[in-house]
Amino acid sequence: TIPFGVQIPLDRDSTCQSLTIATNAPSGYSLFVVQNGNLTSGGDDIDQFKDGTRIDDSAATVWTAPAVSAQNEATHGHFGYTSNDADVFSSADNFAGVPTGPASGAAPVTTGLACKNAAATTGDTCLVEFDIELSALQPAGTYTSELQYIVVPTY
Predict the structure, then answer these.
(1) What is the pLDDT of residues 93-133, one digit of tens each?
(2) Model pTM greater than 0.90?
(3) Which residues are paired to 23 by β-bridges?
(4) Where are the alpha helices (DSSP H) in the chain?
(5) Residue (of 138, 148, 153) closest to 42 by Cα position
(6) Phi (first) and psi of residue 33, to 5 degrees
(7) 112 to each of 11, 24, 32, 72, 83, how far by Cα in Å?
(8) Nearest CA to 135 among 43, 86, 66, 60?
(9) Strand, helix or coil at 27?
(10) In what order do the strands lie in the sheet with 39-41?
C-alpha cells in the first residue's frame, strides 16, 4: 500500500518503500517494479510520468509538474518512481514512469529497473520512491493500481 492520502493541486507528494535483496547468484540481480495499469478511479486515471508518455528508466529525467492542459487529460497529473541506486538513476531527482508489467509467469520484464547489483549479496537495501503530482483538473476519487516487484537473478 502506498498511502498518498488527500492531494493538494500541484503539490508533489512522495513516499518510499524499502526492500532488502539477498541472492547467491554469482552475477547479482536486477529488481524491477511494474504495475497492472495506470492508477484508476472509476473511468478516470492518473497517467504515467510524464504527462501520459511514460519515461523509461533508461531515459529517466528530472521531475516536473504536470503540463496542465484542459484539452489533454494526460496532463492533469502523473505518477512516477526513482530509487537510491545511482547505477540506475544518475540523480535522485531523475524519475521514470512505472511500466505495466506482465502477468505472473509471462514474458520477462525488461523495463522498470529500480536497483541492480553485479555480484552476489547477503542484503542490499533498495529504496524505491514513488511520487505523484496532480492538478486541480484531475477528477477527485480513490485511485488504485497494483504494484509488483520482480527480482531477476543473474547467473
Answers:
(1) 899 999 987 655 555 667 899 999 999 999 999 999 999 99
(2) yes
(3) 121
(4) none
(5) 138
(6) -125, 130
(7) 25, 23, 5, 25, 11
(8) 66
(9) coil
(10) 13-23, 121-134, 77-83, 44-48, 39-41
